[in-house]
Amino acid sequence: REAESFKEQGNAYYAKKDYNEAYNYYTKAIDTCPNNASYYGNRAATLMMLGRFREALGDAQQSVRLDDSFVRGHLREGKCHLSLGNAMAASRCFQRVLELDHKNSQAQQELKNASTVLEYEKIAEVDFEKRDFRKVVFCMDRALEFAPACHRFKILKAECLALLGRYPEAQSVA
C-alpha cells in the first residue's frame, strides 16, 4: 500500500513534468517494494525524460527481468538502446514487443527507426573508407536524430569534421 502511494505521488509529479521529484517517489516505491516491474518501468520513463539513458536502461532491463510480458518495459529498454546508439539491441527489444502484441504501432515505428540507424551506420562505414567525410557527417547527423546520446556517433562526426578542416564545429561536437 505504501509503495502504491509513492508510485501515485510519482505519477502526479511526472504528469506535472517535475521529473526529479517523480524519480524520488518512484525510487521510494522501489525501495519499499523492489519486485514490482511497473515501478522500475516508471522510473525508467522518468530517467529517459531527464536524458539519463544509461540509468534508464538499467531500470527498463530490471522491469522486464521481473516481468517478461511487460510491454512498456521492453519498449523503454529498446528506446534506451536506440538513444545510446545500439540499434541491434533496440531491434531485439521491439521485436519482443511485437511477439507480445503484434499490432503495437509504437514498436513497429521504433523498429523502422532502428533499421534506419543501422543503415546510416553502414553507409557511414563505407564512406569513411572512401574518405568521403562530408557524407559521414551527414549520416551521423541523421543517426543522431534517433540516437541523441550515442557518444560513438558524436565522436565519428567530430573526427570527420576535423578531417574536413572544420575545427570549431569538430570541437563543439567533441
UniProtKB/TrEMBL annotation:
The keyword Zinc does not apply. The keyword Lipoprotein does not apply. TPR repeats lie at residues 3-36. PROSITE patterns: TPR, TPR_REGION. Keywords: TPR repeat. This is DNJC7 protein.
